[in-house]
Amino acid sequence: MINSGDTAFVLISSALVAIMTPGLAFFYGGLVKRKNVLTIMMQSFISMGVVTVLWTVLTFSLAFGNDIHGLIGGLSYFMMNGVGLEPSTVYGTTIPFFAFFVFQMMFAIITPALITGAFTERMNFKSYLIFLVVWSLVVYAPLAHWVWGGGFIAKLGAIDFAGGTVVHISAGMAALASVFVLGKRKRTEHMPHNITYVALGAALLWFGWYGFNAGSALAANGIAAAAFANTDIAASMAMVTWLFLSWLVDGRPSMVGALTGAVAGLVAITPAAGYVAPGGSLIIGVVAAVGCFYAIKFRISMGWDDALDVWGCHGVGGIIGSVLTGVFAVKSIGGFSGLLEGNTQQFIANLEGTAISAVYAFVVTFVVLSVMKVVMNVKVQLKEEEESLDRALHGEEAYAF
Prior knowledge:
Layout: H1 4-18, H2 20-31, H3 37-64, E1 67-68, E2 72-73, H4 97-115, H5 125-148, H6 152-156, H7 164-182, H8 195-214, H9 222-250, H10 255-269, H11 278-302, H12 310-328, H13 331-334, H14 344-375, H15 382-387, H16 389-394
Antiparallel strand pairs: 1-2
């Protein structure tokens, strides 16, 4: 039976998640050099087109089609066959299957776009389009099926409310793999060219994240309300923690640091949003800020050229959130008990799910990019990198003065 309130809520949440990808474009665009802002923004925006087509034709079916040995979905929903006005008997049973399809599509769009912050100023556009398609098919679709589509991680008992493993760990670990395969830029030092863009992007991400997390309840109910509240609490706690941590360690209260802290909190609360109490979300926010802050310090000390710290923020933040979901889950809210309520098995299951997701995303991304590097020119030419990727790749400039 379709519930009109649930349907409206999920459609609005889908729109909120959709605006996160343009938000990401501004967030990343402000962080890069002025001469490369259009290139990084284009990588986010084009994901909205390419992934939507791919999701319609094949990826949705691979993620949510009939389970095949716990590993992948079948072709039961190929070309949206069987996806229509009536609810699914499995996914979102009070909303049209169309609504579930659209909501999940927005997750599939933003996930590979997140990776681009790691290899900014290095990958040519043709290679990125190929990577976008291949990665969506061989990394995102299997992980979505394993966690949300009835696959083997779900059968292990691991829980992920809105994408800590499927979205953030996968993107963060893929980002780290891309750094190792593509290597460093010639000039790795830079200051954000437009912090107002960063702020605008962070605002759109934070706003959209309410749909990302609360909408994952797939109904306008108490769990959605809890997820909404926990999302804001964790992000706020992480932002404040990062602000004072950067002030203490680096000697200044950085605007970019505060915004990065908020994103780290949003990432970490994502798998836990509909499962934990507000007290748990406060602790998750603190741990995420500290963990991601020092992960970035570690990355810098190792000389890894993850330009926009995708691994440090999304990879580490997703791991922290996924593990702590197994600690702080409260049965009275999301129906699952965590370690603090005496459920050791839930904690172990989430550890296993976290480890499997991280290793799979890293290894497969490493292989995909390594093969691409052998058969084509994945990296831009040094001359293009030094002059302007915007002009070299797209024949355009962000600022005409």
